[in-house]
Design brief:
Elements (H helix, E strand, L loop, with lengths): L1 H28 L7 E11 L5 E6 L5 E6 L5 E5 L4 E5 L17 E2 L4 E5 L4 E5 L4 E5 L17 E4 L2 E4 L15 E7 L5 E6 L20 E6 L2 E6 L2 E8 L8 E4 L28 E7 L5 E6 L4 H8 L6 H9 L4 E6 L9 E2 L3 E9 L2 E6 L9 E10 L1
Parallel strand pairs: 1-21
Antiparallel strand pairs: 1-24, 2-3, 3-4, 4-5, 6-7, 7-8, 8-9, 10-11, 11-12, 12-13, 14-15, 15-16, 16-17, 18-19, 19-20, 22-23, 23-24
Helix pairs in contact: 2-3
Protein name: 6-bladed beta-propeller protein
Length: about 375
């Protein structure tokens, strides 16, 4: 199996190099909504490790890969040849431990990285040695934990961090802030990003659940790009003014199911229906000025009722039913139009690391392949 997989990748790489210039030329002449795009596999990183490894980050110089075993929570530090440099587990009790990881680890230089948690930021050397803990003056918390999400970004002398807990009254959206800016040198936390006045969440009379306004963001050069999970608006903030967005763009998805905010919330503010609404799950500013967005269109009330019908407690069955009618995947947004879903090979699971349009790393879809080794796939976006 290993030999066959690698031969396939080599064959694809040789073919794609010959066609790449032609595909780029075609791509620029075709309107974005009409383009047929795909994530093309052209390389891979093979690690001799039995387990479900997922990529968290790549060092700035591109030489070191930080992975985690989803079964054991072991962290593995890998070089570009797939050799294991370090393997350890800091998620358990001990002097170097962290608790409740809230997102993917982040390299802050070639020798050190951060683990974001629901309570703080924890800084480690590649060897696993604890270097520092950035603790806020409040008790951190989270209403939604997506351990594979991007919850901290470094830009200049600051970390931009997704953490809750500063505001005891979480439903007071008008007066709260959605991210924290953490000074690298002092460790001081500063609340940033209020609810934009044009957002539906600025209406104090409307009813929303915590999942609805879960933040998704990216930082590039002098701007911070921000989206709420259940609102198809892209807010652009200047890093010199994080109180009000400089620009707002509506993302014209073909379908995106938003909460009916006129209806009251059930079961203390949450039910399974919340997870079947439209959701924007990831955002990445591309070097071309476009945005790569991962989203789910969501289900109408009738579709949601059908997905939940006859299922008492098996959430997995509900999601399997929902997947049959849901639209889920990656699209490109250029500020005006949205592409079709970008096609990807069944070997590919979730996007793990975006470096550029020509270097996008995906984790292996473990449901499709059973190996005695782990693979991370390197892809690029091309015109089919």
């Amino acid at each position: 199996m290993k030999l066959k997989t690698n031969l396939l990748i080599v064959t694809l790489a040789v073919f794609s190099i010959a066609c790449s210039e032609e595909k780029v030329a075609e791509q620029t002449s075709i309107p974005l909504p009409s383009q047929n795009l795909e994530f093309e596999i052209y390389d891979s990183l093979v690690v001799d490790h039995l387990g479900n490894l997922t990529l968290m980050d790549i060092s700035p110089d591109g030489s070191t890969f930080l992975l985690q075993d989803q079964g054991s929570n072991d962290i593995l530090v890998i070089n570009g040849q797939g050799e294991i440099l370090y393997q350890y587990n800091n998620s358990e009790d001990g002097p170097n431990s962290y608790i409740n990881k809230s997102g993917k680890a982040l390299f802050i230089n070639n020798e050190e990285y951060l683990i974001p948690t629901t309570m703080n930021l924890v800084q480690y050397k590649l060897s696993g040695e604890l270097l520092n803990t950035f603790k806020p003056e409040f008790s951190g918390s989270a209403n939604l934990i997506v351990s594979s999400s991007k919850s901290v970004i470094k830009q200049g002398e600051n970390y931009f961090f997704k953490i809750q807990g500063r505001y005891p009254e979480q439903n007071d959206l008008v007066n709260s802030r959605n991210l924290e800016k953490v000074n690298v040198n002092t460790g001081e936390y500063q609340p940033i990003i209020p609810i934009p006045k044009s957002s539906k969440f600025a209406n104090p009379e409307a009813n929303f659940a915590g999942f609805d306004y879960y933040p998704v963001f990216d930082v590039d050069q002098d701007s911070l790009y921000f989206i709420f999970r259940n609102e198809p608006n892209l807010y652009t903030f200047s890093l010199s003014n994080l109180d009000s967005p400089a620009f707002t763009k509506t993302i014209p998805f073909e379908e995106f199911i938003e909460r009916n905010s006129s209806q009251g919330l059930e079961n203390g503010g949450f039910n399974i229906r919340d997870l079947l609404l439209g959701s924007i799950n990831d955002l990445k500013k591309m070097e071309s000025g476009e945005f790569l967005i991962f989203y789910t269109s969501g289900l109408t009330d009738q579709e949601a009722e059908e997905a939940m019908s006859g299922v008492s407690s098996d959430f997995n069955q509900i999601f399997e039913n929902a997947d049959k009618v849901n639209t889920t995947g990656y699209v490109i947004f250029d500020g005006q139009a949205v592409s079709k879903l970008i096609e990807k090979n069944e070997l590919l699971s979730n996007l793990a690391k975006f470096v550029s349009r020509d270097e996008i790393w995906f984790n292996l879809n473990f449901s499709e392949v059973e190996n005695d080794y782990s693979v991370i796939y390197k892809t690029r976006i091309v015109q089919k």
